[in-house]
Amino acid sequence: MSEPLSFELSRPAVDPPRLPDAEVAGPAPADVLPPDALRARPPGLPRLSEPEIMRHYSRMASLNYSISENFYPLGSCTMKYNPVANEVAAALPGFAGLHPYQDEESVQGALELMWRLEQALCAIVGVDRVTLQPAAGAHGEWTALRMIRAYQHSRGEARTEVLVPDSAHGTNPASAALSGFQVVEVKSGGDGRISLADLESKLSPRTSALMLTNPNTLGLFEREILDIAELVHSTGAMLYYDGANLNAFMGICRPGDMGFDAVHMNLHKTFTTPHGGGGPGAGPVGVKTELVPFLPSPTVERTNGHLTFDHKRPQSIGRVRSFYGNFGMLVRAYTYILAMGGDGLSQASQDAVLSANYLRKLVEGDLEMPHDGPCMHEFVASAHDLTTRNGVRALDIAKALLDRDFYAPTVYFPLVVPEAIMVEPTETESKATLDAFARAVKDIVAEARTNPQSLHEEPRKTPVGRLDEVTAARRINAYLQGQSQDPVLRWKAPSEKPS
Amino acid sequence: MPYLVHSPEDRSAMLETIGVGSMNELLVDIPQSLRLESLQLPDGLSEFETMAQISALANRNKVFPDRLTFRGGGIYRRFIPAAVAAVTSKPEFYTAYTPYQPEASQGTLQAIFEFQTLIAELTGLDVANASLYDGATAVAEAAMMAHIHTGRNEVIVSGYVHPEYVQVLRAFGEGRGIKVRKDGEPNKKTAAVIFQQPDFLGLLVDARALTAAAHDAGALAIACVDPISLAILAPPGEYEADIAVGEGQQLGLSPSFGGPHVGFIACKRDLVRKLPGRLVGTAYDAAGRRGYVLALAAREQHIRRERATSNICTNHSLCALAAAVYLTYMGPYGLRHIAEVSFKRAHALAERLAALPGWELAFPERQFLNEFPIRVPKAPAVMRKLGRKGILGGLDVSRWFRELKGVVTFACTEVNDARALDELVAALES
Amino acid sequence: MAGRRYTRSHEWVTVDGKHATIGITDYAQSQLGDVVFLELPSTGRKLGARETFGVVESVKAASDLYAPVAGRITEVNEKLASKPELINADPYGEGWILKLELAGDPPDDLLDEASYKKLTEASAQ
Predict the structure, then answer these.
(1) What is the pTM of this model?
(2) What are the pLDDT digits (tens) for B263-314?
(3) Residue B239 — φ and ψ, nearest 5°?
């Protein structure tokens, strides 16, 4: 199964689509613009008729796994069902048709939605205010660190270091570095939780913040979170919460109560906005009172039922995105929160924890569990034993699952577990699906013990087999170094591509 | 409860398999003092009630008809072919995850590869990435590339670049030690000269001269471009700009109160390793079949961590897909047609508006495409009057630029038909 | 080879009079997997001991390179630009990375063959 590129399907004889004519007397660009401002050749876009276009994309769609058809046990990604009502809500003309520069009077419903979403998120994570502007989780992390830095500056403090656990997602250190901080790594202890001793040794007057997720990336709750918070706060540093794992505890506990000063949330994880093959998402950030003056501008304010944007915020870190964030994703998330309510969200988190522990139990005879349970909403297993004994790696297990119609779990993350296999089932997968997944894992492990070679050749049923990324990377680098004319990163007409 | 699948019997059976008596036994690691009784939120609703509440909020907004919308400022009303939504609403696309497992994600990967090629063709540059959040963050990421490439700490924003893009650039720059200077000659400290073509007011700038001046100082030239304008205007690659960025909202995405849309970024070959975000390339399997994979990932945050050149993790895949469908639908001549229709209508409108008593073009000596600045007596009152008549008039830009008091930009596209122009002028004359 | 010494960050160095040759170890290349790219400095640059001078990349990993000794770069292995796989195939021979003119004595914390072997065996556990 494969589909040619639109550029390969393109036929010069195809008419352009029928489009409105100008209907007015006016000059053509060539009549008034200087010749050197004009494009010499039309851009090399494909030329296809609508029926061909629709078939092209339908065929491409059929090459994808998706949550609508497959179970995605992707640890730390929270791949849950995307309610279709959310899509209907975001497409309502009263939202989709709004221009961002309309007068505030004409967009009161949109502002009200943003206000109510902010209130709901405050209640769920236990903070005082939320900015909805960041477009993604990493964007939210960076926004939060900028606020912490601005707050500390306003107090005359020059704190330069951010502490990040060794099990953290790569965006944590990257966001810290890009906010102007030095990154200092904090080690995990043998039980998979942050080592208080190591934390204490790394805290100093230079420490600006500790970035933490709880439950951590191993799916374990940091039991000593209150001690951690006290320790961090005692040095005058702040506590930042990475909301990747928010799905574990809605209605069970709140990062605000644990002592976190800033919290980012991924609406595309916990609040069911679709992943879209890698975005758009949304990464709101919640903060406690002392950080409120530093929130990105504008904020939404409500007085006597009347809503406005507040652009006059002298201490604000400024703007982190154009307009007001990924508004369409905010509509979807709010629709979900309304439908679920406080009772539904609490049950969702409990079911997520239940499902993770259940699945962990089902596969613990087949895969190593480097850390003791119970886990929260996800768990990390290891294929280390299979690798050393049978030469079968976590990657092989991931690929073999694809052949059994499951998407793969997250592998090789977190970095602190060798041959890590990170599984997050979420609350929207049935017991029957979890049972089937556990059976598939059992089959694969049995095959790994008896016929490991066969696993190296999987997947076989997917549109393509394992792709040779090494050769691809070397071809790209040859192009970048001027040794080849084939960019690999785009299509080029054969005539442009000397062999 | 909506979207939950376990029955009470399932839950009991699962607890039993785990070997615990209750949910609480699974939550033992959470200190008792932190446990909540419940969330301070109302209980959930049926879908019918949910949608009634959501629709009520939507109905509190005033939506202006496409044809009577003359406001731009970075977000434009355009005709969106039905094919775009038909493709992006396929669950195989919108409910798929980031394509980390290429064998199970060829549809998404191929769509991104086509998007990268389309943007590279449109901008005339060598390579484009898989997309960014929006035009504003694309400008900021491009400035970061220039900073790393040149080792210099200052960027010059030349002329009327979208004010919100500049605000985002400043916020990004602060964390990274990049100083943002408004106008002025590039010098040895300048990493890049950033300009917008056409600029925020709709006016053409001398992109060739700005690019040459940047290069003379050893700086990069970053062109922030309108993708539809590139059907008419010389692309950045032709005038040797190093990086092209822009906002792709016009490529098949509704205004949606400002997002989600899609930022794009393309560059010359020697800068590709410094491109932020995802890149898709071709690769082959053992049977020789062509497929697509995420490429050059070793420069990204999940591998480079604090040494990564950007912290971006996502792209705006689904919006990039919409843009790819849109550009494929239009093709080279369809795109040029709508760019020309927009051009003609805007010029016809400019002439008629400039003839109104007291109105005059703000920069009569400057060229524009489909958006233009005009001085309007009592601008705020005039725009309010239009609003009452169901017309979304131009954008008063004095809120950002004090020197442009009374200046309003009007935008025209293929959706503003000839009668819509008549209605606008009639409303202003009444 | 006699005289080859190692760093804890998995570079090797041989010293011949005032001249040193630097590369990454067999263990390092096996951990990285197929090398696809190296970012390397230009000749003439002065490096301090333990200073980072470049990056070696495979498809799934990237690792900074640290100078085991201080000195001025006299030669960079040009072949690696088009054939990064030499790092995998022959890390101690054709896959050498830099030649330096030494500045001062090599640091005394460099490891000998036996100590380095112990280090890699310990990390494999």
Answers:
(1) 0.96
(2) 999 999 999 999 999 999 999 999 999 999 999 887 777 777 777 777 887 8
(3) -100, 15
Mean of all residue pLDDT scores within chain A:
95
| pLDDT by position in tens, chain C (length 125) | 458 999 999 999 999 999 999 999 999 999 889 999 998 999 999 999 999 999 999 888 888 999 999 999 999 999 998 899 999 999 999 999 999 999 988 888 899 999 999 988 876 55
**Does the structure show a pLDDT above 60 at A68?**
yes
- Using a CB–CB cutoff of 8 Å, tell me whether B183 touches chain A: no
Tell me the C-alpha distance between B186 and B170, whole Å.
Answer: 18
* Tens digits of residue pLDDT in B149-191: 999 999 999 999 999 999 999 999 998 899 999 999 999 999 9
For residue range B351-388, list pLDDT tens digits in order.
Answer: 999 999 999 999 999 999 999 999 999 999 999 999 99
Q: What are the residues whose beta carbons fall under 8 Å from the beta carbon of A435, sequence distance 6 or more? A: A362
Q: How far apart are the C-alpha atoms of B248 and B78, rounded to whole Å?
A: 12
| B 142-181 residues with CB < 8 A to A | 162, 164-165, 167-168, 170-172, 174-177
Q: How many domains does chain C have?
A: 1
| Domain B83-323: assigned CATH number | 3.40.640.10
User: Domain B66-79+332-429: which CATH class?
Assistant: alpha beta
Q: Output phi, psi for A389, to 5 deg.
A: -85, -40
Q: Spell out the domains of chain A, with CATH numbers in brackets.
A: 6-61 (no CATH), 85-340 (3.40.640.10), 467-499 (no CATH)
- B164: alpha, beta or left, given left = phi > 0 and alpha = psi -120 to 50? alpha
Cβ-Cβ contacts under 8 Å, B14 against chain A: 354-355, 357-358, 431
How big, in percent rounded to 5, are the helix, strand and coil portions of chain A?
40, 10, 45
**Taking CB atoms and an 8 Å cutoff, what residues of chain C touch B304?**
62
Domain region containing C43: 5-124
In chain A, residues with a C-beta closer than 8 Å to the C-beta of C82 are: 478, 481, 483
Instruction: Compute φ and ψ for B95, nearest 5 degrees.
Output: -105, 15
Report CB contact under 8 Å: B303, C62. yes
Q: What is the CATH number of the domain that holds C60?
A: 2.40.50.100
Asked whether the beta carbons of residue B307 and residue C37 sit closer than 8 angstroms, the reply is no
Backbone angle region of A275, left / alpha / beta, with phi > 0 → left and psi within -120 to 50 → alpha: alpha
Q: Which amino acid is at C31?
A: Q
> Residue C59's closest chain A neighbor by CA?
A470
Q: What is the pLDDT of residues B323-361, one digit of tens each?
A: 999 999 999 999 999 999 999 999 999 999 999 999 999
Which residues from chain C sit within 8 angstroms of residue A478, using beta carbons?
Answer: 82
Mutate to test the interface with A, among C64, C82, C85 (most CBs of A within 10 A): C82
**Residue A311: exposure state from Cβ atoms within 10 A (0-12, 13-18, ≥19):** exposed
- In chain C, which residues have their Cβ closer than 8 Å to the Cβ of B307? 62, 64
Give B 200-229 residues with CB within 8 A of chain A. 204, 207-208
Does the beta-carbon distance from C81 to A470 stay under 8 Å?
A: no
Is B304 close to C60, i.e. CB distance below 8 A?
A: no
Q: In which order are the strands placed within the sheet that holds B407-411? A: B360-361, B371-375, B407-411, B395-396
Give the chains touching A; criterion: ≥3 Cβ pairs < 8 Å: B, C
Peptide bond into B65 cis (omega under 30): no
Of A272, C67, A236, nearest to B95 by C-alpha is A272
